[in-house]
Amino acid sequence: MITSLQRYAKDHPRFVDLMVIIQVLLVAVLGSATGVREPSGAEIPWWPGALLGIVGSAALWWRRSHPRTVVAVTAVTVNTGSAVGYLITPLLLAPLMVALYALAMHTDRRTGRRALLSVVVLLVGTALVGDHYDHPWPLKTIGPVFWVLTPLAWGTATRMRHAYLEAAQARAEYAERTREEEARHRVAEERMRIARELHDVVAHHMALANALAGTAAHLARTHPDQVPRMLDDLAGTTSSALRELKSTVGLLRQPDDPGAPLDPTPGLGRLPELTAAFAAAGLTVTVTADGTEQPLSPGVDVTAYRIVQEALTNVAKHAAARTARVHLGHSPDWLRITVSDDGDAAAPAAPSPSGGFGVMGMHERAQSVGGRLQAGHRPDGGFTVTAELPIRA
């Protein structure tokens, strides 16, 4: 019931204004009818107060659009009634009190203070100077001040409460938008991460499988006795590819899925296994290091491994090189990785640093942990990839 009335009042503000004006008018007329007697015994007529009440109440129709003007009009009507001889009571002050409440609701605090000061000076001054009926001084001073201060304070508190609720709603809406944007951002980042993992796994193992298959086909014609060993290496490579693909696709499973893989994330500790796989494909990889080795955070460790893996895969795919070098430079805060090959000037060039998903993926991986990466051709032939990664992401 109350909710329906509130909704109706919100949808029909002018009807509410009319009801307020009628009620205030009745109160003001009632206040004028309760006049006092002059010292001679004659009563003050009621109709001047009623007329002033009608004027003040009618002015309330514009209290939302012109609150300052309405306060001025109602203050003049009440002050005129005081000058005529009416005792200023809450009944006669009703139009002015409603006008002050509206002023506090639709203007700022400074305007309300100025209006309060002006009204108090006007009413109290007139009551003290123009009173010919010896009304008690508390009724002429303290009473008017209290009755005009109350609606102003009430209106200010209501306005501040509405402002607080609007600010809270705005913050809630902003937080909701931020959560949605953050969720979309995290989903996009996760998609990019899985895409990089799939690219690195597929490109690496397919390149090795292709090299091993080509070598096996060649040996089948020249050294048939070595073909079984090459086929075993090919089977091992494809098996490793299937395991890593299962592990990567498992990232899309739910955390409580019993079918999710439990294989450890690859890191630099698997470099010997990686170099052995390339050696089986005909690429000899030499790994060197200097400095004191520092423990890497898991994110940096897998990033370093994937960068080395992708760089060596590019060498196997694009460069006519039989050897490659991996150098790990350790420092207290950084890990510097350098992967290079001598290449062959007559062979197809390695991918440009600005093109290809491999080099782009290595750049993204390095940046994701706060590092940087450079890739480019060597002046004397070959290709070099240099990455600098922080020890802690």
How would you describe this protein?
The protein has 393 residues and is an alpha+beta fold. Among the domains are: 2-140, no CATH class; 267-393, Heat Shock Protein 90. 63% of the residues lie in helices and 9% in strands. It is built from twelve helices and five strands. The protein has helices spanning 2-11, 13-33, 47-59, 67-84, 94-106, 109-129, 137-140, 142-222, 227-249, 271-280, 298-318, 357-368; strands spanning 284-290, 323-330, 334-341, 372-377, 383-390. It has a five-stranded mixed sheet with strand order 1-2-3-5-4, with helices on one face. Helix 11 (298-318) links the parallel strand 1 (284-290) and strand 2. The longest helix has 81 residues, at 142-222. The radius of gyration is 44 Å and the shape is rod-shaped. The protein starts with a helix and ends with a strand.
What features would you highlight for this structure?
single chain, 393 residues, alpha+beta, five-stranded mixed beta sheet, 5 strands
Number of strands: 5
> Based on helices, strands and strand pairing, what is the structural class?
alpha+beta
| Poorly predicted sequence stretches spanning 5 or more consecutive residues | 345-355
Percent range of helical residues: 55-70%
Give the overall pLDDT as a whole number.
79
Strand order of the largest sheet: 1-2-3-5-4
Radius of gyration: 44 Å
